[in-house]
Amino acid sequence: MSKQPAIASLADDNLAAGGVAAVDRALTLLAAFGNGTPVLSLSALAGRTRLYKSTVLRLLASLEHAHLVVRRADGC
């Protein structure tokens, strides 16, 4: 049985009809970065997107692999 979050993520609140939930979540992560916030911690990303930290880490790994985000030397 899958665990349902108590509060839906921003991506789950705005799913694209006929879309892919994981892509919507990844795009929500990218949208969390604004002009004034080029660097965000894991906690900040999780808070802004209402996603579990473990989900954020998995999505960031894919985004990093695609060269869409860069992990800094200090881990941010």
Automatic annotation (TrEMBL):
Q: Which residues form a coiled coil?
A: none
Task: Name the SUPFAM superfamilies for this protein.
Answer: Winged helix' DNA-binding domain
Single annotated GO MF: DNA binding
Q: What is this protein called?
A: IclR helix-turn-helix domain-containing protein
Any Pfam family: HTH_IclR
Question: What InterPro entries does the annotation carry?
Answer: Tscrpt_reg_IclR_N (IPR005471), WH-like_DNA-bd_sf (IPR036388), WH_DNA-bd_sf (IPR036390)
Start and end residues of each HTH iclR-type domain: 20-76
- One of this protein's GO BP terms? regulation of DNA-templated transcription
